[in-house]
Amino acid sequence: MKGPIFWLIWDGAASSVTRRLLDEGRLPTLARLARGGVSAATRPTFPNCQTPPSLATLLTGVSPTKHGITGFHIPATGFDSPVTARRSAFDRTALHASPLWNDATEAGRPTAVVHLPWTEVGETGPTYAAEAFSRRIARAGAIPIDNRVTIGPYELTLEIDDGSLTITPPVGPPSTLRGEDVRRSIAVQFDRGIGGVLRAWRRPADGARFLLSHGAWEVRTSPVDGLAALEEAAGPFVGDGLGRLYRHGVFGPRLDQDGDGDAEAILLVGIEALADHFRKASAHALGRVGREAFSVLYQPCIDAVEHELFGWCEPYAPGLSDRAWAGVELVYRMADRHLADVLARAGPDATVIVASDHGMAGIRWNVHVNEILRRGGLLAFGPDGGIDLARSQIVYHPANNGSLWVNTKPRPEGIVEPEECPGVIARAAPLLRGVRLTPDGPEVFTKIYPLDEPPCAWSETFGDLFLATLDGVHLRASPGPDGAILAPAHKSAAHLTHSAQSSLHGIFFAQGPGFTPGRDLGLIELEEVAPLVRHCLHPSRPGHFTCQT
Ligand SMILES: [Zn+2]
To answer: In the structure, what pLDDT confidence band is assigned to residue 549 with cuts at 50, 70 and 90?
Structure first.
């Protein structure tokens, strides 16, 4: 009898934050796991450490060059599309390597995969799977309350009474939301596999009332007939913690705008709904597969809070530090609760792994790369702010994954002859090197690949040039405000291109047969996590990297 393997992925969990919270005794469940097994910090993927490349490396053990996921959006490399063309990284055919749950299937184990990208959902693939992120129907939003409101293609009828709201969705019975406490929510069904979580909120500044929607996605499951049971157990999919609304000031002034904390309180309510949904979905999945299963479970709440608050913890906003940190800590504890649910199912023969795909980096400045090229006469914007390819020799790619591409012929709308390509790069590089935060400060771009470093782990899938930035600087493809190259960042934190910044380091904790209790593996590469997990699937097979090391 093989013991079960539970692998919980905490998106965005940073080693530095996790270590501090463990030292302060704030993550009791993870502390238990750490005492009984091994721990490590993980170095993020190179050269891009956005979520899709990082998750793909975590799940396959190979670098972005090999698995082909080069950012949130993947620039098209062929000559059959314009240089600015791109596709979604979550397209299942974009992944050119095999995720570990396929190894588990080969090893004869049942598998459960909960809300991870690239999952095959249907008759083949994992024994149990749930997936929704690839099919978003509507973004999260704050919708002024009226008798009729629309969410994506769905129209809802509202009956407004003094203290309550009765909402009639296109399918299913009406639901009533009582009172104006934003912490209360209702679940409504829009269609088969599509639903939403809604809250009522009154804006303190003017008393206007809004329906807060967490967005809508189409959920699919394997087996197909498992959908109703999942909806029953976990409610409609909650894929958004309302972070974008918070960031744009919808909930009022934020901490960095002298807010009093009310906006953050709503953000944390939203993120708690996100955390709870994934916890419930994974509990449901674990109940659907046998004891010997290999289960991969996703939890996005930490990434969601860190994008909004991490940058103010330190070092850029000392005055906000404590209040921002309290929010971050609260959400790490939500993830710890998810782990507690998993550990409650794990007997002594179980292997339990908690790993993240990347950490987080505070940002203070946006650098609008295409403004640099425009000022140097190498690029032009069209009237709509898009890149005018007929007048652009090289572009910072709108995929915003760190890469620049020469607009070569014979691509559609290409204007540079292939033999002129080195000349265009030679004109662009000094323009990029000339950008500094202050006249005497260091260059904003710390590395321009492959000019500054041998092209190790490099391929043409990362463009003609690729940028690494100073800490605190975030890349943008859009025109700068009033043509500015550098502008204050709106987002508090991000993870885009690889840098030496240690806050980008992720986490790895594993407990079970074969893992030495209390052992600290130090700093390992993200690529090394999958071989460790794979070894647990084939304990008898000699591996180059055993669980004992
Ligand atoms: Zn993220």
So the answer is: very low
Token representation of residue 444: 């904003």
* Token pair 């796991």 in the structure block, residue: 33
Tell me the CA–centroid distance for residue 322 and ligand 1, in Å.
22
3-state secondary structure of 372: helix
The 10s digit of each residue's pLDDT in 209-234 is: 999 999 999 999 999 999 999 999 99
In this prediction, residue 171 carries a pLDDT of: 86
Residues 6+ apart with CB under 8 A from 277: 234, 235, 237, 238
| Dist. CA 44 → ligand 1 center (Å) | 13
Per-residue confidence at 105, pLDDT binned at 50, 70, 90? very high
Pick from 397, 372, 375, 361: which is nearest to 12 by CA?
A: 361
Interval between CA 50 and ligand 1 midpoint (Å): 7
Residue with tokens 């490590």: 40
Is residue 132 a contact partner of residue 300, using CB atoms and an 8 Å limit? no
What sign has the CA pseudo-torsion 81, 49, 367, 430?
negative
Distance 239 CA to ligand 1 centre (A): 13
3-state secondary structure 222-277: ECHHHHHHHHHHHCCCCCCCCHHHHHCCCCCCCHHHCCCCHHHHHHHHHHHHHHHH
Q: What is the CA(304)–ligand 1 centre distance, in A?
A: 7
548 has a pLDDT exceeding 60: no
Which residues does 455 contact at the CB level (< 8 Å), separation at least 6?
A: 449
pLDDT bucket at 546, cuts 50 / 70 / 90: very low
User: CA of 24: how far to CAs of 18, 216, 503, 541, in Å?
Assistant: 10, 38, 18, 39
- The pTM (predicted TM-score) of the whole model is 0.95
Distance from Cα 303 to the centre of ligand 1, integer Å: 5
Share of the chain above pLDDT 90, in %: 84
